[in-house]
Amino acid sequence: MEFSQDDFDRLLMFEHARKSAEATYAKDPLDADNLTKWGEALLELSQFQTVAEAKKMINDAISKLEEAMMLNPTANAMWSIGNANTSHAFLSPDLSEAKKYFDKATDYFQQAVEEDPTNELYRKSLEVCAKAPELHMEIHKHSSSQQTMGGESSPPNAKGSKKKANSELKYDIFGWIILAIGVVSWLGMAKSHVPSPPPR
């Protein structure tokens, strides 16, 4: 997967956020907001990793977010842990394994909605999560057919082509996640940034 300048800028920004949160944690391990920021930074950074490394980083993000939830269960932390579980689910090719993560995500999104029912982003995330298993099947069906077509032209022991296929699969999955979450985020931001109509 090749990075654009925007990707590289995001990578640097979230790596800085991760390091900053880690330093703050060393001084104050009971800062729930900092733990939430740390978990969110890890979740963002996971998009730039291989599938195995991404899963490990997402698990670390979930751990930080759960720690934050024990200290101060905010709607934002609930929503973030829902996103982390959704991301992990999409990286799991087995639908039954993925479904466990989607169910956890649904629970956290539901809690976030109950905590802040007026938040459009939380409600849209809950709606998107309900459709996630169907989307999961489509993504993995699509990516396996791409790998099959691509695999016919490559030698059987071509490790480079397998690594590239895995990288493309991860990119496809994160692309769908980013699309789904991006639409939800955009809806949330668009609603809060809609200018008032000019007076007539």
TrEMBL record:
Coiled-coil regions listed in the entry: none
Segments for region (Disordered): 140-163
UniProt keyword Mitochondrion present: yes
Keyword tRNA-binding belongs to the record: no
InterPro entries: TOM20_imprt_rcpt, TPR-like_helical_dom_sf
Membrane-topology descriptor: Single-pass membrane protein
GO cellular component labels: mitochondrial outer membrane translocase complex
GO biological process: protein insertion into mitochondrial outer membrane; protein transport
Gene3D superfamilies: Tetratricopeptide repeat domain
UniProt-annotated location(s): Mitochondrion outer membrane
Compositional bias annotation for Polar residues: 144-156
Assigned keywords, A-Z: Membrane, Mitochondrion, Mitochondrion outer membrane, Protein transport, Transmembrane, Transmembrane helix, Transport
Residues spanning the membrane: 171-190
SUPFAM superfamilies according to UniProt: TPR-like
Biological role stated in the UniProt entry: Central component of the receptor complex responsible for the recognition and translocation of cytosolically synthesized mitochondrial preproteins. Together with TOM22 functions as the transit peptide receptor at the surface of the mitochondrion outer membrane and facilitates the movement of preproteins into the translocation pore.
PANTHER family recorded: MITOCHONDRIAL IMPORT RECEPTOR SUBUNIT TOM20-1-RELATED, MITOCHONDRIAL IMPORT RECEPTOR SUBUNIT TOM20-2
Family designation: Belongs to the Tom20 family.
Protein name in UniProt: Mitochondrial import receptor subunit TOM20
